[in-house]
Amino acid sequence: MLRAALQTSRRPLARAASGRWAPRATPPAPASKRLDAIGRAIFGTLEGNNERSGNKVLRKKLKGPLLADYYFDQSGQSVDEVGREIVKGWMNDVEARRKSQLEVLRRRGKGPPKKGQGKRSKR
C-alpha cells in the first residue's frame, strides 16, 4: 500500500534525515524564467513554444483605412469627368502630352494622315 501511494506521487522521492522516503520539494524556478513570466504579464506577449501563433501578423498596424484614404473615391465620377465639367478643354497629363507630341510630328510631316487620305484612298 505504501509503495502504491509512493508510485502515484509524481514528484521524485528523497530519503529524509529520519530515514523515511518523502516527496522532494520542487525547486524554485530560475530567475530568468521568473523574469520572463513577469515581462509577459506586463507587456502582454506570448510564451514562445516553437509553434506558429500568428501574433507577429496580428501586432501589425491595419492597412485597410490607410489604403482607403489613399485612393480616389471610385463610387462617383472620375477626376477627368469632374475636370471637364469645371474647365472647358481640360486635359489630363497623358492627353496633353499626346497632343503636344502629335503637333511636333505634324510639323515635321510625320503625323497621321487626315481622314480619308490614307494608303487605300490613293490607289
Average residue pLDDT? 79
Number of helices: 6
> How would you describe the shape?
rod-shaped
Total strands: the figure is 2
Largest sheet: 2 strands, antiparallel
Helix content: 40-55%
Structural class: mainly alpha
Strand order of the largest sheet: 1-2
Report the order of strands and helices.
HEEHHHHH
> pLDDT below 50 for ≥5 consecutive residues: which ranges?
none
Supply Rg: 41 Å
- Ends distance: 118 Å
Share of residues in strands: under 5%
Please give a quick description of this structure:
This is Small ribosomal subunit protein mS33. By secondary structure, the protein is mainly alpha-helical. Helices cover 45% and strands 5% of the residues.
Based on the model shown, name its key terms.
single chain; 123 residues; two-stranded antiparallel sheet; rod-shaped; mainly alpha; 6 helices
Outline the structure in words.
By secondary structure, this protein is mostly helical. It has a domain at 77-112. 45% of the residues lie in helices and 5% in strands. The protein contains 6 helices and 2 strands; from the N terminus they run αββααααα. It has helices spanning 2-8, 31-43, 55-59, 64-70, 79-86, 93-107, and strands at 13-15, 21-23. Strands 1-2 form a two-stranded antiparallel sheet. A hairpin with a 5-residue loop joins β1 and β2. It is rod-shaped, with a radius of gyration of 41 Å. The termini are far apart.
